[in-house]
Structure formats: C-alpha cells, structure tokens
Amino acid sequence: MTGERTFKALVVDKVDGKIVHEIKQLTVNDLPPEDVLIKVDYSTVNYKEGLGFAGRSKIFRQFPMVPGLDLSGTVVESESPDYKPGDQVILNGWSVGERYWGGYAQMARIKSDFLIPLPKGMDTKKAMAIGTVGYTAMLCVMTLEEAGIKPESGPVIVTGAAGGVGSNAVAILAKLGYEVTALTAQGQESMQEFLKELGAKSFAGGKEWSEMPRPLETQKWMGAVDTVGTIVLSRVLSEMSYGGCVAACGLAGGPDLPTTVMPFILRGVSLRGVDSVWCPTSRRKAAWERLVTDIPDSALAKINKVIKLEEVPRYTKDILLGKVQGHLVVDVNA
Q1: Residue 175 needs a FRET pair 20 to 30 A away by CA distance; which of 15, 195, 232, 297 works?
Q2: What is the pTM of this model?
C-alpha cells in the first residue's frame, strides 16, 4: 500500500507540559514499523483514556501518541505468518494507546503478537461494543467460576455497575443465571432502570458505601466483581459470605485498600486480581469465544453508544465525571 494515502487520526502531544490533541491527516508511512497493517473499523473510550487526556496517571508514555487501547478491523498487509490480508482481528491491551499507537485512527500498524482473530459469530462492531470493558468483565466472571462460585452458590454484587465493565458484568452474570445486585454511586439512582433491564435483581447504595466498614459486616455476597477499589472494596470484603470470592479489576475510586485480614482468615474469602492488559493470549481467546454467546445482543444495544472520532475528547472528560452510562464505541470512519 502506498504511504501517500492519507487517513484520519486523533493524535495527542505534550506542549509546555500540557496534553493537547488534534485530528490529523496521516499517511501509512507515519505509522510505526510493526508487522501487521490494519484498516480500523471501531475503537472505544475507556476510563484509562479519560485519565490520559486529562494528563493524569501518566497514561501516555510517549509523544506524539495515537490513543485507543483497543480496536477491531481488517488486515491489509502482513509480514506475520499468523495473519493474511482480509483476516478480521481484535486488539485489547498490551499498552497499546499508551506505549504503542492505538485505535483512534482509520489505519494502524500493530504487533502481530498483540492480535487475536475475530471469533466466528461476531462482527467488528459487536467486538468493540464488547470492547476491553466486556472482555474484562468476562475475565472477572471466569475468575469467579474458577473459584467455585456458581449461580446456585448465592448472590453476587457488582460495584461501579453503571460503568462499562460493571454494566457488562451485570449482563453476563444475569445471562448465566446469577442473582445480581448492582451498586451505583450516590447520585446515580436514575441508572437503576437501565441496570434492571440488563438483569440486575436488586440494588445497593447509600452513605455507608463511603464510610469505613467494621472488619466483618453481615454476610451478604458469595461473589463480587469490583471496579472501584478503596473503601468500596473494603466494604465488599467485609460483607462476603464464607468461602466467597471477589474479582477485582478496577480502581475508579482509588488504588488504596483499607481493610483487615479478618475476612480472609475468619471467612475464607479470596480476593483475586483480574488483569486484562497482559492477560495471556490463550485466556484472551477463551474469553472472547465465550463472549459470542454469554452476553446478550439486547444488553449490548442498551449498554453502548456510538460516537465519532472527533467526539472522543469531550467524552473522555465526561467519563471521569461519572457522566457516561454504559460504554462508548468509536466509529473511526463516521
């Protein structure tokens, strides 16, 4: 493909210590020298991009940078024996959009080791409707299953349930037959109807979720998916039933964990970390194969909103303020 062909990309840079962004016309020759060239169809907006555009947490590790931590599209050129032109692929994680150029562009060059084939029964739009958030939610569900938490074991709670990972976790768990309680932040009570449509059976909330719990509270949950961290995770741990498991994947509320050993040594509770960025390829493929069927299309339609590439910076501000319900898909060609 000639490097003279231009395409649209959202590029961020640092000027006088501040993050700036611009829609630019690039050529294929501007792309990094990786081994697979992809025509991008869709990407997504995640909390991590919100942090990056706000200049927080040093998300962007080099400049200039094309953000977008995931993408779906079609291989155009390949130097890898694993992919050929016409193959449809998915990318999630691997520090793409942070250290490596990502999905906020109509073309991308990606390391073949970072890609997985698009599963049969899924198109590129559905793949990004699921995105990193749905894939992370599926990893959390798999983690609970591996801990022996089954639908008949007892209720499960999902924190940050109105967000991307949380709403997907509610939908997947409900589809699999779990009794799901959704925790939303104060001021997000209006989102309960949305979560009920995804399968939530009950709701948690109130000022106690911003207060330190006792080391052990009343036993309520056999399983939990936590996207928040800090005091919220501390309360979840204190309310876990004997032998329960928490799958922790996020820190929307903060990275600290003010807790005690008592849930672990007196109730046999386990806290298992879930990482989507460096997750081994075999486990990624297993999660994506399950996502073909384990999340209802009807739920994805409720969870997702499609936006244009030019709208991304505005929504990265909203996502940090908790104003985004569900998940944002970016149509880079709109």
Answers
A1: 232
A2: 0.92
